[in-house]
Structures are given as C-alpha cells and as structure tokens.
Amino acid sequence: MPNPSAKNHLQGETSPYLLQHADNPVDWYPWGEEALARARREDKPIVLSIGYSACHWCHVMAHESFESPEIAAVMNKHFINIKVDREERPDLDQIYQLAQQMLTGRPGGWPLTMFLEPDNQIPFFGGTYFPPEGRHGLPSFKDLLERIAEYFHAHREEIQSQNSRLLAAFEDLDTRTSAVEADRLGPAPLKAAQQQLVQSFDPRYGGFKGAPKFPNPSSIERCLRDARGEHLPEEARQKAFDLARLTLEQMARGGIYDHLGGGFCRYAVDSQWRIPHFEKMLYDNGQLLALYADAYELWGSERCRQALEETGHWAMGEMQSPEGGYYSSLDADSEGQEGKFYIWTREQVRSCLEEDEYRLVARYFGLDQPANFEGHWHLYGATTPEALAQELNLSPQILEEKLATAKQKLFAAREERIRPGRDDKILTAWNGLMIKGMAAAGQALAEPAFIASAERALDFVRGHLWQNGRLLVSYKDGRAQHPGYLDDYAFLLDALLELLQARWREGDLAFAVELAEAALAHFEDPAQGGFYFTADDHETLIHRPVPLMDNATPAGNGVLAWSLQRLGHLLGEMRYLKAAERTLKASWASIQHTPHAHCSLLKALEEWLYPPQVIILRGPEETMGSWQAIATGEYAPRRVSLAIPTGARDLLGQLGEYRPQGEGVAAYVCSGHTCSPPLTRQAAFEAHLADQGR
C-alpha cells in the first residue's frame, strides 16, 4: 500500500492543477497506461477526478476530502485513483461529462467524480462534488467510496449490462447524416435560430433569461451577424441588433467585467451581471475581444471601446508570458476565499481617494447601496456615466477624467493585495482564441501593440507546439505535450486568418495551409463528413465524438468548416470548400433539430449560402494603410480582405494572380462569383464597396 506521507505519481507533471494534488495522501496517478494497467492487474475500479486550476469547488473538494488521510486511505485501499486536468485532456472530459449526464440524468460540472470499470474504463457511477460528511441530500464521500467498492465486487454482471447500454447510448449520440442532398441546405435554420435566441432573450438586462448568466459568445456573434443578415427581414435584423447591443453594453457595465484591471470573469451568478464567479478564463476573454471589436465597428460606443482597450492591456500585462504565449486562467480564489482580491469595504475605498472622488465612485460603483457580496462590495456600474454627469452637473469629459483618476488609485491599491493563483500553462486552442481576439481588437482600435502581441503568441505556438507537422495541446516549464485535438487546429487556423487581415506577414498563410492539411488528413471522416475531436492516431477511448454544438467555446466542426471555406475562397482551393460542405451536410439533421445550439455551424452555413466578399489589395506597404482602413473600418462580417505588399513572395493558389498595377495600390474585389477589374483609385474603391453593400 502506498505510503501516504510520500508524494504521489503527479509529482512529475507540469499542469498546475495536477501539481496542486501532488502532496495529497491520495495515491493519484495521471491518466496513462501505468495507472490503467495497474487497475486491470489488481481488478480495482478507478476513481477518475477531473477538474481545473481555477475551479472553486475543485479546491473545496480537494481540501475537504483529498487532503484527508482517512478518506485517502479508503481511496488507496479500494481504488486506483486518476486525476485529470480537463484543460489538457478535453477528450476525457467530454466523454465522462456525457457519461455522468447519461448515468444520473443531471448536468455535469467540475469537479467531476467518476467510477470506472478497470478493464475498459467504462463508467458505472458518477457525480460532481461530494462533501466529506453527508449534507444537502449528498452522501459523505467516504461512505460513498465504501459502498461503491462493495457494489463493484458484488454486482459485476449488472455493471457489465449497464456498460453495454451506455456504449450503445454513446453510439446514438452521433446524429450525422451522410446522404443529404446539396439543395436541402438552406437558410431555414438561420431564421429559426434567430427566433429562438430572441425568445430566450432577457429584454431588461441582456443575455439569456435566468441565472447563472453566461456570456455565450457564439450566440451573441450570431446576433451580430444577423443584424447584417441577407436571410432576415429588416424587423428581425433590428431585433438581433438590439439583443446584441443590450447584452454587450450591460456586460461591460456589470460586475462580470473588471472595471479596475480589465478582463471578464467566467459568468455572473445573478441575472443582472452584477456578481461574478470570479475566475478569468483566457477562452472567454479571447472570444469577447473579437465580439467587442465587431460591436465597436458596428455602433462605436465608448463602453465597447473601453472594454476592448482595457481587456487587451490586461491580456498583455497579466496573461502573456515573457516567451509570448498566453496563460490559461486566473483563479477565483485568493487567500482561500472566493473573490477576496476583487471586493472592497467602503473604508478601503475611502482611504484611497479624496472625498469628492469617493462620492463620485460610491455613486458610480454602487457603494451607496447595500453590500452585495458577503458583507463587502463588488464594483459594478450602478449608473451610467451620462446619467451621473447630468446628476452631478459635470461635463461628460470631466466625469470620465475624474473616474479614470479614481480607478487608477483603486487599481494601485488592489495591486498590493495577494493575487489570485494563475494557471500558467499555455494551451494551443485557447491561444488561438486570444490571438484572434487581440488581432481583431488591434485592427478595430488601430492599436499595433495588440497586433504585435498576437504575433508573439502565434510565433510561440508555432515554435513550441507545432512539431513534426502536428500540434500539441499544452506547454509549461519547457515541456510541450499531448497530441492536438480538433479545437487546436480549428481555433488556430481561424486566428491566422484574422491576423492575416490585420497585417500581412510572410509565412503565415503557408502555416494556415499546413494546419488545414493536417486537420483534413487526421480528423476528417471523409465518408460521412465532419471532423472527429481526436486524431486518427489518438489513443483509443470508449467514444470518439464529432462535436457539433457550441459550449463555452465554439464547436470545432463549425469553426473549421468556416475557416476552410474562407481559405478555399482566398486560394481557389476546391478541396477545402468541399470538406466544409461535407461537414454541413453531415451536421444538417442536428442543426435543424436545435439551430440556436449550433451557431458556429450556422456561421459556416451562412458562408456557404452567401459566399464572402473577397478583397485583395496589392501595392507598396507604406501606401496601403488608408486602403486597408476602408476595407476593414466597418462591420462587414461577410468580407475577408488581405493587404499584400508588392514584394510578397511565394503567394499560394490564386493569390498569385492578383498582381500589383504600376507603382500605386490596386484593389481586387470579388463578390460571389464576380470579380471587379483592378481598382487603382481610392475613391473608386470606396464607391465600389458602397455599391456592393456589406
């Protein structure tokens, strides 16, 4: 039996989450053949515990149960114990979250606690958080462990029968269809999704009804695109616009947004966006940067500009490693308490400010109202700057200056506190989301520092996580590991296409093609269409999913299908367009069943139905800036534009046909299947885009 005073088998890992458990008396293993072979050899069931570094309830269960010698003794005696970081192994997390829902009929979450049969890792019981003592209808974890160990050895036939049913249920999850005719792809799901989103919309506070309330970036992006959608009448376009605008403005005003340091928390626990669950995730902020960049181009509010600027600087200052890659998350907890870093007493705020500054801040951030978080105040926009300026008889400019000064003082005071933990592993997929967000923000704000930050992250990923023509998932402490998943390829390809529109750089388009080719070679199901989450040479698990629905991050199938279409139109590469079409056909039944749950695939469908407007600018780099500003300076979701300098080499596909014309700039504009002659006068180019619309 393992010595409970010794370190367990996690000590050689790099994941901060796994290392948090390396000193537990539980004899934890990472997922791998050593643990699985021991389970088979000793015929012991597996306790599979999945969580992540920034997860509050993961910390609670670790402290209550996994640090308990008494509970650890039961786990070590009866089970083989495996700990998984869901951010490094999303394949395992997806499978066992689904299994938990099938077995219990309840939604999953973290920490996830599953009990697996040793021979084939099929789960026979599961749940999420279990307390050390029975409460709130939950059994004590120690009692549960003892009962499950006894049941496992006494009821093997029942477990095997349940396992067979569970595997059959996994097979039924694949809703793809292989024989859909091309002419059946149409705009009906786009219209249905818009109606569904409007019906579930909270007309008072934005977002979608109920609490907790999540940002849902894929759904809000769908609304932004619907505001320009050819498939909708004017009234529906206006509803989509109103939904997106109210949501994004309320989020930036609410407590889900960090008004002092920038960046968004993961979700709000209330319906008014006031009190967050305090962890900050890279994947949320990358998506929200791209969304707010679109919003700023569409309606140009000061609130959107501020959220973009502050979140971009937060990403560079707190989340970007010296080597260039972006870190994964900031914890919800500091000093063992959720939100302690972010919350205030009135006395703490007053001590940082002059009296007139305090009166202004108290009114703006709700300190003149009752405490809103465990006897403290979490800052949120209790009023608008416009209303407050009028109330205090100040000009909007003076008010903004006073607020900015006060916020700087509070930020400096907060910086003296003990900071939340940071998960400093660098994930390829999440870096793809943030690279796209920073590139979009940099372009919308004309902020070259943001674009340069995105370039540094891309160079890091290419230098450390792209090996032998394949992506790896995670990097930390000099080690890159785990073979890449669909999301790694899809999100990074999408990011490259966004970054190329912000600026042209030699080699980036060739890298995009390499990613596309690797995804097609190792993830596509060419017979039925669509892309598996794991590669063809990945370890064999109990299920190989084809993810079609969006979750906290967009579905890899939707992002990759959209990106392949963009790349196909740019290069004239029909293989990419056909692969995207196969994905849409295979997904058609699932899309039709719940359109609003497939917003990423709807984006690809929209592009298939209404091909993008492609703009290629050629000319001297120093004179193309004003032309590029015309192409990218408005919200035009169906437009893709590249500004390629005269001296660019090795242009791929049909890009080589777009040649410079003389010493000036030439613009080539293709809409649908029609291309303009080269436009060499800026006024003519601007007029042509105005005639073509968005």
TrEMBL record:
<dbReference type="InterPro" id="IPR036249">
    <property type="entry name" value="Thioredoxin-like_sf"/>
</dbReference>
<dbReference type="Pfam" id="PF03190">
    <property type="entry name" value="Thioredox_DsbH"/>
</dbReference>
<dbReference type="InterPro" id="IPR024705">
    <property type="entry name" value="Ssp411"/>
</dbReference>
<feature type="domain" description="Spermatogenesis-associated protein 20-like TRX">
    <location>
        <begin position="7"/>
        <end position="169"/>
    </location>
</feature>
<dbReference type="InterPro" id="IPR004879">
    <property type="entry name" value="Ssp411-like_TRX"/>
</dbReference>
<dbReference type="GO" id="GO:0005975">
    <property type="term" value="P:carbohydrate metabolic process"/>
</dbReference>
<protein>
    <submittedName>
        <fullName>Thioredoxin domain-containing protein</fullName>
    </submittedName>
</protein>
<dbReference type="InterPro" id="IPR008928">
    <property type="entry name" value="6-hairpin_glycosidase_sf"/>
</dbReference>
